[in-house]
Amino acid sequence: MKAKKPFRPKARRPRGFEDRSGSVLRVERHLVETASRVYDDWGFEPLQTSAFEYADALGKFLPDEERPNEGVFALEDDDGQWLSLRYDHTAPLARYVAENFQDLNKPYRRYQAGDVWRNEKPGPGRFRQFVQCDADTVGAGSPSADAEMIALAADVMRAVGLADGDYVVRVNDRRILDGVLESIGAADPERRMRVLRAADKLDRLGRDGVAQLLGEGRKDESGDYTEGAKLDAAGIDTVLGFLDAGGGSRSDVIARLEPLIGTSDTGKAGLAALAEIDAVLTAIGVDVDRALFDPSVVRGLGYYTGPVFEAELLAQASYDDGSPIQFGSVGGGGRYDDLVSRFTGQAVPATGFSFGVSRFAAALSALGLTGAVEEKPLVLVVASEKDRSADYLAMARELRAAGFRAEAFVGSGNMGKQIKYADRRGAVAAVIVGSNEREEGLVTIKDLKLGARLAADISDNKQWREEQPAQETVSRDGWVAAVSAVAQRNKP
């Protein structure tokens, strides 16, 4: 009888999830740290909520409501209650505020960064796990608080190295579209959400795709069908006209929107909020080139109740084949006055801004704006003698004290293999102390970057071994300074 083979799982990554390497993580960490400094400067306090929330506390606000589990990853706890991984940082914030309401200063201003999870259909650039970085003000109902969020978003764009003109924050108020829907008799909640979600896809699907979603519905390339809002032709034209009302100064947009809302008090409240936001932004120096009014911005999440905004990158970059990269929106937010009241029954106004860290970081990398992310040079201390590991680890510690990333090799392999390892790691230098160097009080330093450049011009292995280019031997007293000189001349 044949022995049964042991089960070996296939190494595979789940769809919609990604592994992020060191270089990517460093850019993302820099982005979060930069945004956090801006939030901190504006008087916000850090907060970290748990990854899991009770499913009923998160609520049903995701755009992917048609899916069986409504877009979240959920599990049943041993007490029979359902838990869900958070799909953003806003819904957990509402729970936190409600739970600690009496102890918090109002308005409560907090920022948070961390992973969120959405059980959505994955696609290019669309992941089921990603990092968001948020700032929110809870307990302030004035449009001035929304204007502050818009200005804060614009300041984050500047802080990460974008020039004015390379980004813009697009602003709207959902109540204006509500007023338009009231004017055409299409304000029932289900139809309203279908219209909002259709409008939110304008950039991705274009006018024809949105028109289909405003009407009977649309089938995508995979064959999946999305039910439409069932508006008639006149209603579709009215909503598309609303979406086209942007352009020019913020006051110009307000003037174009006024006739579309008719006598709707809801629409009038939205226009009044935009007028106040315009006044505040103008007073604090946020011009239309940094923040403009755009009726096509509606945001997909169902909990927004008033002003909404998106931060969009306008800067140009290209793929390797020369085709342009479309960055689009990297962040957004808005007012959500009903979220905390789900727990308390008490009206608690709130507004916030969030950006997707991975998407934003990838865009900054494509634009060459990650130069501010200074990665310390890596140096490898070669394990030339097996019984001298303690000495090599001590040398690595000296290098770290001098500001380097440094490791003493603890694997197996001869010197050649260790040098190849250092090359693959991107090390700037390798430090060697064999028996000869140790006895004479010397240290050999290989400039790995220079060596790689010189190797391209030398075809004779004998010549390479005899000349030992890009290598120097120095006294033990000055070896760290010599490594610093190597790093300095290889500085990008």
UniProtKB/TrEMBL annotation:
Protein name stated in the entry: Histidine--tRNA ligase
Q: Give the compositionally biased regions (Basic residues).
A: 1-14
Q: Could you read off the lineage of the organism from its UniProt record?
A: Bacteria, Pseudomonadati, Pseudomonadota, Alphaproteobacteria, Maricaulales
Q: How does it assemble?
A: Homodimer.
- Pfam families reported for this sequence: HGTP_anticodon, tRNA-synt_His
| Homology family | Belongs to the class-II aminoacyl-tRNA synthetase family.
GO biological process terms on file: histidyl-tRNA aminoacylation
Annotated GO MF terms: ATP binding; histidine-tRNA ligase activity
NCBIfam families, alphabetized:
hisS (TIGR00442)
